[in-house]
Design a protein that fits this description.
4-stranded antiparallel beta sheet; 22 helices; about 10% strand; about 575 residues; alpha/beta; Gyrase A, domain 2; Isoleucyl-tRNA Synthetase, Domain 1; flat
Length: about 575
């Protein structure tokens, strides 16, 4: 209805232009807002106030002319001019209830639009290094990124979801050597575990599967592994220097077999991450390998393009990118003195690759600790000739886990963390997905495990799902009583729905498409959660507790059943956008 009102206003303005009352270049964008006070109507516009100065007219007089030029429409019962020149619109009662038919006719499509007009958007989220299982911190990025992707798709964008597998570089070498040392330990060779190695039972599990696959073919004596290595922490040494020396020793001792250890560790963890995310309802169109950038010379090509554009220079043997020319706080190294490409160099190539694949817009969902990354990547893409507004970064704040009023400590390197799989097993994927997106992505999240598991109305996801289960229960009761819902009869008697509870619920359903447009445009899936909680579920439960649905009056009964069926459809549609199911019974 909001669009209908806006269209009527636009037609009135066009008519005034044709009459010569207004100049075409004086017409502003028509904005229509929902009235905050129902006594002031259903919708309001300030268009007369906005254009009064350019039109050199008194805003109230101009508002009167606009109202006089409004085409007649059965949806609008009346209008009024308020205050200095606001125009308030009062809808006919039938115009409100018509949404019930629109929801039932559209089904799963209700709320979807073609705003994006098929524009391609590449969205990357999670992309955690495959050095360990996903933990609860990664879960928030997964839930948020997947929900944003769903919203963008719902409003007509062609969305490509991608996971960037960081399967190259120093951290992967540390993973490989950590797995190998546990493998040696399993075979009876005792090598002191490095302070900077990856700990946790998952490393031992990977080592065990490596042994099952390769037997003792990768065994090397502990004495050869540790000979002449520098001291480690806490024995007076440098843990970074020690782990690097240990990696070099492992490479030397294993030779070509080093690749076997490396690939096994990566493959095991990537497969576990895939499985974890699939169980969480998060799927991707592509899993993009970092190493493929080097295999295809994509990194060299991207850096050569930057050089050709005049944005690289040499200093102290290294190659630097002039990122300060685009607002970054300092220039960035892309090739080290030893000729190795930096992580940033690979990231430049990866983002340039996204653009080369034809994506019109690129979105990264990153942890809040990557804030400093934004300016440098914007700089790199602009230096490559990509418009700034084609690249967007959404930062996700940290999630803290609480149980029984106490915060659960976590450390990834020490192996002390709650995995995403453990969270799913404890509270369920539905509660986890909903709680993760219940807060804005730029706000810290305190995840209350006890609340997420509670089977009470204090638990927001339970409260919403219970509304859907109640709707399905009503329809089962209908069948049990030997009655049938006559949809056509119900739609023909929607004028019987006049209680305040019914009006509130109908207005909530009518607002859903507008809500989805706003949530998608602002990348704010939490709006969907609050809409379901505060508008739909609350209105439904209040109505359910106040009125009987299966009344003897067939016309009223069918009309009420039409409204609850439409409510159930909107609940299902909205929950699907944030990756939550709508149960039939609870």
């Amino acid at each position: 209805m909001k669009d209908t009102v806006a269209s009527l206003i636009q037609r009135a303005l066009d008519a005034l232009v044709e009459q010569g009352t207004l100049a075409a270049d004086a017409l502003p964008e028509v904005r229509v807002e929902r009235a905050r006070d129902r006594g002031h109507g259903d919708f309001a516009t300030n268009v007369a106030l906005v254009m009064a100065k350019s039109a050199r007219r008194n805003p109230r007089e101009l508002a009167g002319e606009i109202v006089a030029a409004l085409p007649e429409d059965p949806a609008v019962a009346s209008t009024e001019i308020a205050g200095p020149g606001f125009i308030n619109f009062f809808l006919a009662s039938g115009a409100r209830s018509d949404v019930v038919a629109r929801v039932l006719d559209a089904g799963e499509r209700y709320g979807r639009s073609n705003t994006g007009a098929g524009e391609t958007i590449h969205i990357e989220y999670v992309s955690a290094n495959p050095t360990g299982p996903l933990h609860v911190g990664h879960g928030r990025g997964a839930a948020f990124g997947a929900s944003v992707a769903n919203l963008l798709e719902a409003v007509g964008y062609d969305v490509h979801r991608e996971y960037y597998v960081n399967d190259g570089g120093r951290q992967m070498d540390i993973l490989a050597v950590s797995v190998w040392l546990r493998y040696l330990e399993r075979l009876g060779e005792t090598v002191p575990f490095p302070a900077n190695g990856y700990r946790g039972d998952y490393i031992r599990a990977i080592a065990a599967s490596l042994y099952e696959a390769r037997g003792d073919s990768l065994l090397r004596p502990a004495a050869e592994v540790t000979a002449d290595l520098p001291a480690d922490e806490p024995d007076g040494g440098d843990k970074e220097a020690f782990i690097d020396a240990l990696v070099r020793r492992a490479r030397a001792l294993l030779g070509q077999d080093w690749g076997i250890v490396f690939e096994h560790g990566v493959a095991e963890l990537v497969e576990e991450i895939r499985d974890d995310l699939a169980g969480f309802g998060v799927e991707y169109e592509d899993w993009f390998s970092e190493r493929s950038l080097f295999d295809t010379d994509a990194v060299d090509r991207a850096l050569e393009r930057l050089d050709a554009n005049g944005y690289l220079y040499e200093h102290e043997g290294a190659k630097w990118f002039r990122s300060t020319e685009f607002g970054d706080e300092k220039d960035r190294v892309v090739i080290r003195e030893n000729g190795d490409k930096t992580y940033f160099g690979a990231d430049i190539a990866y983002h340039w690759n996204k653009i080369e694949r034809g994506h019109e817009r690129v979105i990264d969902v990153l942890g809040a600790d990557h804030h400093g990354y934004i300016a440098r990547m914007h700089a790199a893409l602009q230096a490559l000739g990509v418009a700034k507004d084609r690249f967007e970064v959404l930062l996700v704040q940290f999630a803290a886990l609480w149980r029984s009023g106490e915060k659960i400590p976590m450390s990834t390197r020490a192996g002390q963390f709650v995995t995403l799989r453990e969270l799913r097993e404890e509270v369920g994927a539905d509660a986890a997905r909903f709680f993760y997106v219940l807060r804005r992505n730029d706000q810290h999240l305190d995840f209350d495990l006890d609340l997420a598991k509670a089977q009470t109305q204090d638990n927001p996801v339970y409260y919403i799902q219970y509304a859907h289960a109640r709707i399905r229960s009503v329809m089962r009761q209908l069948e049990t009583r030997g009655l049938q819902w006559d949809r056509a009869n119900g739609l023909a008697h929607l004028d019987r729905l006049g209680t305040p509870h019914e009006t509130n619920l109908i207005e909530a359903l009518e607002r859903y498409p507008e809500l989805i447009e706003q949530a998608a445009a602002n990348r704010e899936p939490h709006r969907v959660c609050y809409y379901l909680l505060e508008e739909v579920a609350n209105a439904f439960h209040t109505w359910y507790n106040a009125e009987a649905f299966l009344v003897d009056d067939a016309d009223l009964r069918d009309a009420r059943l039409a409204l609850i069926q439409a409510t159930g459809q909107v609940i299902r549609n909205a929950l699907a956008l944030v990756g939550v199911s709508a149960p039939e019974e609870m």
